[in-house]
């Protein structure tokens, strides 16, 4: 493979991997604490991207303001869908699939509301107004201010989240709720409060991820939806349990989508139309061959879970 | 406005027949047996892709013509040839349709059977939903990237419905509607009979508690695989009619949204109730057509709102409201669903205690 | 020849039977366009072109004392072939329209073909140009914009004239993109060009990074054997995505770029860095014929008056297509078979905003004149720098 | 009938069942007792095939069922009941009872649509279910959803459902938990009748020792995953070790 291709695709892998990691952490958190495979996460991301776009168009071009408001908007959308939809629904004791359908429906509504708004205000396929600057140019290696925003911000956010979960009382409570909800109730933990905070936290990471994603490409109402399945692939690859696994999964999926795809194209002529299928093939293989994921701590197969 | 009521009704009922097949299939799989098939689109698409292959490769042979490669530069001539055969060789058209249905049913049934067998390895139950969802996308991406199936992104057009040779569009569309409706009716009767049989009882037990059903000596994996097989066959038949109705086969049709539409029909109508599935299919079909007509009306009256977006928002809201306030659907599952009760109220089989 | 005079002649011809039968009727003209999806903004603009044509026609009909009025009924194709098939079906069944303006792209046209042919509905497609749609004898007329069998030659001539030995192609993977790229490869080889490479991308791509990285590698390997250019056959949004990535590529900024007609859009130049990149790349596009008939100025003026903004690219083609469709209905009545047989005649005698609507055996525009565009000195718009005549295969470049 | 040898199963570091061996003879009613956490439920799950042991073997009716699946074990004639009645709550009492019947023709989708093929068999099964329900005093409730039954009736239906598969041995997990004393005794009387009339063997996990000891042939005491004592009820009551760990005396 030509070195230029390798280096470019590796840079893309790292950028996309950071974005996937940020999104996959949100998915994992909801999955563990709320016990919901949340497809509406995609639209929390898209909301963040649109907020960033609108802020950059009409309010401020400062990256801090843009990313901050996008984070806030994601958190608000997530919290309000929890309060308006998910919490009342979970009282109905619906099955996981029905809840999955609920999250689908919430996502569908949000997505098409964004469609209507961007149709009305002509916001399709716009770029967040942060001008592109090339900061490093070393033969094949070109790095821009976008790369230097996406990667450090994502990684910082991931580390902050890991510290929050690992080192704080709230984090301990969330983990307790994740591993044993009944016990958490009995121990008198304020379960509702922890759930709301979890939604707030996942929403915030989603909003931030959306803004960063918007910086990486263009903003449109399908932005999150098109990324959600690879992100699920990353989360499952990580075993849906550990943070390290999720992050590893995210970078692996991004690596397969970019560098591996590039290599396949170079050596076998596989067209890029297949790119989107690569993470899906990974999900299926992982689920079938190693249901516990990369680092899984899930119980052995063949036992009570069946 | 000048609505052609007859044609609208025929189109509506044809759509309804196809939607009913899809809804019955999902109702059997999820409503009755509790297998969360989030990959309905794949099984419908198997019917569609089979149609693409038979109509481009087999149909010319059946009419005694030479096969023209359906894609790329020869796309036009191949399309002409298909239309010509459909117009002048009704026998070849019908035979081709019959073979298409058989192949589609076989392939889809086998895929359903094996997917279910393989999926048993999955640890958490909802992983199955995810595998099917993602599997559907994978198949779709493969088909739209690999030319020989449906000419990749181009899709295959000119798959006329089997009565096109009559030369009278009204009559042929009515006949096609009758064909679709009668297949849907037969399927409904078949599903009703299944549900009321010991097989239906087994499936419902499976849905409620698979582990207990297993410990009562039932081969749960086999029952699941069988119901997936039947559901997949029905979905594939729906897929064949689906593309014959639009006359076009495109991978764009078989996205997650299609699966979601079918789920909405079943949840709306009433999980576990075949009549409910039919009702759900009817409601969604009417809603679909009404919003389509409303969109045209709104465009004519110069209201600048894209109703096609609003349609999806409506879907989402209806689904949420249903799940919130009537999770059992419009027509909930009846308590008595097997015929066994009639046997007991009947005094005859009451044999003496041993 | 002036459009109005033609209308007047036709009115006299066509309205006599209407009056004789005493019918006073609204005739529905169907419009099937993508309003949602990636091409949504095109569709909305096209509908306005049609509405303008209808409003003008109705005013003339009223002035002439005719009882006939046209109304439009439009439906959304969602930009997909199947959506297009359904949209045509819905419009026909719920409004009684037998003649439809649209759809937009070749894949949408092919999607609706089956239903149109089977039910005797005439489709007048204003902008579809994919070679795959060139089928003789069907109910589809692709008036005004010529098929890409010609534009492919234009691209090949430009490439050869400008001295490119090799061309790296990036094209949309649909009947339009593939058709144009296929033909280009043939014509380029025939015109004495060197090697070409092809990368196709799926419609509505979320991210083109892989494709662009590959394009860069292709350019690197092609450059070894001579001067190389990039040919981008993309929809506007996709082109914008591609260019954002090309901006930071070490190699793609060093070669020349050729674009398709969709890239002849000032929106592309809104981003200053993209504009600079393209100017540096000596960017040239083959686009709609810019020489305008007197009607074009009037169209642009009344469009702006009616809707408050200038018409978008190709909107004039929708206007022309609507006029051809309505004139054919006036001449032959709202009947698919009759319109099908008279439309080529009417179209051939209609002078639109750019050229006359002369049709070939496939029902496609036969006059293949294209303007060659480059970015102007200010870097904010395109200007015509030459002309390509497809029928004569002659390329004239200014200066 | 049932031979268990050196059965061991660990969860993480915990040995829930640790080298357990015992036999249940033909037609015997065996009680399995022990303090909470002594491994009774794990043992039951191991026998029924819901869990698989790390080491050791289980034989039933001469066949090795150590690693068989729950459905295969059930088909061999070893049925189990559940502590919290795991009925099919959305189904009627009769359907619950009919489900485990063996070799149902109508359970194959190929025969299912054709009434005539399985109607006779269904009638036969219904008649048997009728007798069974009559015996458990559930006959009048056959049409109700299982969720509408009282706790005690659910327990009875759980047993009845297990019986409908015509097992030769039944594993019961606390059949009288949460049931009024009078009904508890009735349940054990049903068990005794079944044991007498149908020659059914039982292995019963039970906390109500007063009732249990009146009905069983053999008692096995489990403590910390090991068999502490085994023998006739009278001997067990006298056993010093059992009194220490179990009765706290």
Percentage of helical residues of chain A? over 70%
Q: What distance separates the N and C termini of chain D?
A: 34 Å
Most extensive interface: pair and counts?
B-C, 43 and 50 residues
Instruction: Report strand order across the widest sheet of chain D.
Output: 6-7-8-3-9-10
* Total domain modules of chain A: 1
- State the low-pLDDT regions of chain A, or none: 296-306
Distance between the termini of chain A: 45 Å
> Helix proportion of residues of chain D, in percent?
25-40%
Task: Please state how the strands of the largest beta sheet of chain A are arranged side by side.
Answer: 1-2
CATH C-level class of the largest domain in chain D: Alpha Beta
The radius of gyration computed from the alpha-carbon positions of chain D, rounded to a whole number of angstroms, is 19 Å
Strand-pairing-aware structural class of chain A:
mainly alpha
Task: Write up this protein.
- The complex is a heterotetramer of chains A (306), B (354), C (399) and D (249).
- Chain A is mainly alpha-helical.
- Chain A has a single domain (3-300), classed as ABC transporter involved in vitamin B12 uptake, BtuC.
- Helices cover 73% and strands 3% of the residues of chain A.
- Chain A has 11 helices and 2 strands.
- Chain A has helices at 3-34, 41-58, 63-90, 96-120, 145-167, 169-179, 181-186, 191-216, 223-237, 243-268, 277-289, and strands at 134-138, 141-144.
- In chain A, α9 (223-237) packs parallel to α11.
- In chain A, 56% of the residues are buried.
- In chain B, α1 packs antiparallel against α10 (220-246) and α8 (198-208) crosses α10 (220-246).
- Chain B has 14 helices and 2 strands, in the order ααααααβααααβαααα.
- A two-stranded antiparallel ribbon of chain B has the order 1-2.
- Chain B has a single domain, classed as ABC transporter involved in vitamin B12 uptake, BtuC, CATH 1.10.3470.
- Chain B is mostly helical.
- The radius of gyration of chain B is 22 Å and the shape is globular.
- Chain C folds into 2 domains: 23-145 and 292-348, Response regulator (Rossmann fold, 3-Layer(aba) Sandwich), CATH 3.40.50.2300; 148-282 and 369-397, Rossmann fold, CATH 3.40.50.2300.
- Chain C has helices spanning 3-21, 40-63, 81-95, 106-119, 148-161, 175-190, 209-223, 236-247, 272-280, 294-307, 315-332, 336-348, and strands at 26-33, 69-76, 99-101, 122-124, 140-141, 166-172, 196-201, 228-233, 256-259, 284-288, 369-375, 382-389, 394-397.
- Chain C has an 8-stranded mixed β-sheet with strand order 7-6-8-9-10-11-12-13, with helices on both faces.
- In chain C, a hairpin with a 4-residue loop joins β12 (382-389) and β13.
- Chain D has 2 domains: 1-77 and 167-249, Rossmann fold (3-Layer(aba) Sandwich), CATH 3.40.50; 92-164, no CATH class.
- In chain D, α4 (115-135) packs across α5 (151-164).
- Chains in contact: A-B, A-C, A-D, B-C, B-D.
- The interface between B and C is large, with 43 and 50 residues.
């Amino acid at each position: 493979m030509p070195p230029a291709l390798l280096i470019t695709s590796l840079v893309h892998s790292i950028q996309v991997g950071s974005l996937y990691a940020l999104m996959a952490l949100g998915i994992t958190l909801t999955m563990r604490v709320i016990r919901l495979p949340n497809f509406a996460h995609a639209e929390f991301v898209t909301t963040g991207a649109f907020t960033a776009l609108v802020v950059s168009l009409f309010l401020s071009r400062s990256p801090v303001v843009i990313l901050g408001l996008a984070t806030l908007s994601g958190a608000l959308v997530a919290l309000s869908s929890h309060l308006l939809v998910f919490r009342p629904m979970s009282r109905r004791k619906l099955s996981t699939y029905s809840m999955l359908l609920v999250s689908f429906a919430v996502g569908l509504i949000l997505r098409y509301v964004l469609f209507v708004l961007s149709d009305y205000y002509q916001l399709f396929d716009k770029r967040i107004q942060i001008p592109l600057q090339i900061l490093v140019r070393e033969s094949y290696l070109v790095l821009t201010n976008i790369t230097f925003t996406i990667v450090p911000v994502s990684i910082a956010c991931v580390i902050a989240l890991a510290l929050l979960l690992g080192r704080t009382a709230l984090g301990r409570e969330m983990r307790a709720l994740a591993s044993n909800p009944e016990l958490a109730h009995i121990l008198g933990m304020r379960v509702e409060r922890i759930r709301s905070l979890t939604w707030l936290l996942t929403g915030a990471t989603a909003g931030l991820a959306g803004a960063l994603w918007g910086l990486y490409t263009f903003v449109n109402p399908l932005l999150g939806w098109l990324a959600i399945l690879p992100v699920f692939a990353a989360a499952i690859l990580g075993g849906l349990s550990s943070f390290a696994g999720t992050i590893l999964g995210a970078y692996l999926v991004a690596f397969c989508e970019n560098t591996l795809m590039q290599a396949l194209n170079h050596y076998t002529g596989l067209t890029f139309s297949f790119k989107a299928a690569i993470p899906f093939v990974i999900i299926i293989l992982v689920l079938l061959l190693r249901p516990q994921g990369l680092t899984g701590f899930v119980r052995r197969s063949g036992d009570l879970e069946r | 406005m000048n609505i052609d009521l007859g044609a609208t009704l025929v189109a509506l009922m044809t759509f309804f027949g196809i939607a009913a097949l899809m809804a019955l299939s999902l109702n059997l799989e999820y409503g009755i047996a509790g297998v969360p098939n989030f990959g309905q689109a794949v099984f419908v698409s198997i019917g569609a892709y089979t149609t693409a292959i038979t109509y481009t490769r087999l149909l010319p042979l059946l009419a005694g013509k030479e096969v023209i490669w359906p894609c790329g530069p020869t796309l036009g001539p191949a399309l002409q040839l298909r239309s010509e055969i459909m117009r002048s060789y009704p026998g070849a058209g019908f035979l081709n349709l019959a073979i298409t249905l058989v192949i589609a049913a076989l392939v889809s049934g086998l895929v359903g059977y094996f997917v279910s067998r393989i999926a048993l390895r999955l640890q958490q139950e909802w992983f199955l939903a995810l595998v099917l969802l993602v599997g559907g996308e994978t198949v779709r991406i493969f088909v739209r990237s690999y030319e020989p199936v449906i000419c990749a992104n181009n899709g295959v057009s000119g798959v006329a419905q089997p009565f096109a040779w009559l030369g009278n569009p009204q009559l042929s569309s009515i006949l096609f509607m009758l064909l679709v409706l009668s297949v849907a009716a037969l399927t409904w009767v078949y599903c009703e009979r299944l549900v009321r049989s010991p097989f239906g009882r087994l499936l419902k037990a499976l849905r409620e508690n698979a582990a207990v059903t297993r410990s009562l000596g039932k081969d749960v994996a086999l029952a699941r695989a069988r119901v997936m097989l039947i559901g997949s066959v029905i979905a594939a038949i729906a897929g064949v009619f689906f593309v014959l109705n639009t006359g076009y086969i495109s991978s764009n049709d078989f996205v997650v949204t299609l699966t979601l539409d079918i789920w909405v029909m079943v949840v709306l109508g009433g999980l576990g109730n075949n009549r409910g599935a039919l009702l759900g299919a009817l409601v969604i079909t009417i809603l679909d057509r009404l919003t389509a007509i409303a969109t045209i009306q709104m465009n004519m009256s110069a209201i600048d709102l894209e109703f096609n977006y609003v349609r999806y928002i409506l879907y989402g809201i209806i689904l949420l409201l249903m799940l919130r306030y009537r999770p059992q659907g419009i027509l909930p599952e009846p308590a008595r669903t097997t015929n066994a009760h009639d046997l007991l109220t009947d005094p005859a089989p009451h044999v003496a205690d041993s | 020849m002036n459009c109005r005079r033609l209308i007047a002649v036709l009115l006299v011809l066509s309205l006599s039977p209407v009056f004789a039968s005493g019918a006073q009727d609204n005739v529905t003209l169907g419009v099937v366009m993508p309003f949602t999806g990636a091409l949504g903004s095109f569709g909305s603009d096209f509908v306005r072109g049609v509405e303008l044509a209808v409003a003008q026609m109705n005013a003339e009909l009223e002035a002439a004392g005719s009882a006939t009025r046209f109304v439009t009924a439009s439906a959304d194709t969602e930009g997909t072939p199947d959506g297009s098939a359904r949209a045509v079906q819905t419009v026909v069944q719920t409004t009684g329209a037998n003649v439809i303006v649209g759809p937009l792209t070749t894949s949408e046209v092919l999607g609706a073909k089956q239903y149109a042919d089977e039910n005797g509905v005439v489709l007048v497609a204003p902008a579809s140009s994919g070679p795959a749609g060139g089928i003789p004898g069907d109910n589809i007329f692709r008036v005004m914009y010529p098929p890409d069998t010609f534009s492919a030659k234009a691209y090949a001539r430009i490439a050869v004239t400008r001295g490119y030995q090799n061309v790296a192609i990036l094209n949309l993977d649909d009947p339009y993109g593939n058709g144009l790229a296929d033909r280009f490869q043939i014509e380029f080889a025939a015109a004495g060009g060197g090697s070409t490479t092809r990368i196709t991308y799926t419609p509505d791509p979320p991210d083109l990074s892989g494709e662009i990285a590959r394009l860069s590698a292709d350019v690197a390997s092609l450059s070894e054997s001579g001067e190389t250019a990039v040919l981008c056959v993309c929809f506007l949004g996709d082109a914008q995505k591609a260019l954002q990535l090309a901006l930071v590529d070490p190699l793609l900024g060093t070669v020349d770029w050729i674009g398709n007609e969709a890239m002849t859009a000032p929106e592309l130049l809104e981003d200053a860095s993209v504009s600079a990149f393209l100017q540096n790349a000596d960017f040239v596009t083959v686009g709609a014929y810019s020489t305008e008939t007197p009607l074009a100025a009037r169209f642009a003026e009344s469009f702006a008056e009616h809707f408050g903004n200038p018409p978008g690219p190709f909107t004039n083609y929708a206007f022309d297509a609507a006029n051809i469709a309505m004139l054919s209905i006036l001449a032959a009545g709202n009947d698919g078979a009759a319109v099908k047989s008279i439309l080529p005649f009417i179209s051939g005698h209609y002078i639109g905003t750019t050229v006359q609507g002369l049709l070939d055996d496939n029902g496609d525009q036969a006059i293949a004149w294209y303007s060659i565009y480059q970015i102007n000195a200010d870097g904010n718009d395109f200007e015509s720098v030459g002309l390509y005549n497809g029928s004569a295969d002659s390329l004239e470049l200014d200066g | 009938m049932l031979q268990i040898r050196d059965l061991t199963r660990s969860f993480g570091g915990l040995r829930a069942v640790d080298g357990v061996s015992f036999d249940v003879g033909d037609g015997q009613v065996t009680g399995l007792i022990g303090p909470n956490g002594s491994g009774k439920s794990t043992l039951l799950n191991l026998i029924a095939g819901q869990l698989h042991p790390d080491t050791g073997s289980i034989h039933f009716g001469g066949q090795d069922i150590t690693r068989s699946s729950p459905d295969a074990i059930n088909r061999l004639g070893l049925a189990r009941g559940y502590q919290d009645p795991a009925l099919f709550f959305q189904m009627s009492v009769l359907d619950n009872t009919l489900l485990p019947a063996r070799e149902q023709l109508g359970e194959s989708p190929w025969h299912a649509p054709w009434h005539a093929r399985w109607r006779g068999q269904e009638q036969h099964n219904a008649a048997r279910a009728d007798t069974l329900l009559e015996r458990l005093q559930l006959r009048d409730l056959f049409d109700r959803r299982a969720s509408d039954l009282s706790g005690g009736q659910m327990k009875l239906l759980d047993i009845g459902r297990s019986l409908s598969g015509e097992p030769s041995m039944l594993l019961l997990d606390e059949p009288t938990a949460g049931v009024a004393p009078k009904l508890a005794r009735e349940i054990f009387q049903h068990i005794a009748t079944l044991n007498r009339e149908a020659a059914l063997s039982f292995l019963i996990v039970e906390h109500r020792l007063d009732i249990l000891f009146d009905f069983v042939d053999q008692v096995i005491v489990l403590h910390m995953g090991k068999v502490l004592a085994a023998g006739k009820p009278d001997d067990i009551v006298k056993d010093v070790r059992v009194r220490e760990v179990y009765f706290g005396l």
